[in-house]
Amino acid sequence: MEIRRWDRKQSFGKGVYGILIMMLVLEAVVLGRSVSGTTENISISESAVANGESQKDMEKKSGKNVGNVAGQENDTQSEPAPRIALTFDDGPSIYTEKLLDGLKERGVKATFFIIGESAEVYPEIVTREAAEGHIVGNHTYHHVEITKLSVTAAREEIEKTNEILEKLTQKKTEYVRPPFGVWEEELEDLEMMSVMWTIDPLDWTTKNADEIVNKVVTQAEENDIILLHDCYKSSVQAALRIIDILQSEGFEFVTVDQLFIE
Ligand SMILES: [Zn+2]
Question: Quick one: CATH architecture of 83-261?
Answer without folding.
Answer: Alpha-Beta Barrel (3.20)
